[in-house]
Amino acid sequence: MPSLDHAAIVLAGIALFAAFVNGAIGYGFSSLTVPLGLVFFTNRILNPAVVVVEVFLNLYVLFINLNGVPTVWKRVFPILVGMLPGIAVGAFVLASLEPGWVKFWTYTVILPLILAQAAGWRRPVRFSWLIGLPFGTALGILYSVTTISGPPLAILFNNQGLVKNEFRAGLALVRVVESSVTAVVYYQLGLFIAESGDILRVFVPCVVVGIPLGAYFIRRVDAETFRRICMSFDAWVVGFGLSRVLIELDLMESPWAYSVMAITILIDAYLLYIFFTVRRARIR
């Protein structure tokens, strides 16, 4: 068991909250854990532990939504095929690039995706080989480098007109494949190291406690409002992480680098205002 230093305690708190969210809405563990975890650890240390946890989380979500799989598996098959070479490319990038730049690109790619999801971007997109294959490849690269795929997947699936069970089944099917294949590729590249094992031992009890709590909690609150608040928290965290890494790489000086976080908060506050204004009007 890792020593209870500051980083381990903070990471345990992050993982508990992320598991709670994952239990409530069916995804979100890596999207919340990784941005904050990167403040203390590099992707090479954090990613393997996150991927192992996600394999079991995704299998659990898939199991409880199995009756939705027959409806969606043909739709997501092109994504699964395109994902395989993408994961190989992304894992090689993770093993090759300097950790600071991996952090930078993680935050830079994820932030606009989170804000687009928070804005409720809607544009009907039909699953096809023309769309699914390149999307799957890009998703595989993104996931194997960052272990985050929730925002782009949520945007795509929200524009398919799927019912809740089909949405969760399709999401879980894609994520089971991406996490399992990524874990195998990480192992082949020798990315599982002792530090990752220490982080995994912190994650396991947090997941065991957080998942059932989240599943219990979501039955008693408005799921859409809770999901939207989690997006805001995620956006603010990524904005903070991007500001920090800009300072680490000497791309901007403090305190000017924190303008990125400030702009992110302002944009998200505006999107929150729109969300609650529209929601209030619908209720009336």
Automatic annotation (TrEMBL):
It is found in: Cell membrane. Keywords: Cell membrane, Membrane, Transmembrane, Transmembrane helix, Transport. The keyword Chaperone does not apply. One of its GO terms (cellular component) is plasma membrane. It is a multi-pass membrane protein. PANTHER family: SULFITE EXPORTER TAUE_SAFE (PTHR30269:SF38), TRANSMEMBRANE PROTEIN YFCA (PTHR30269). This is Probable membrane transporter protein. It comes from Bradyrhizobium erythrophlei.
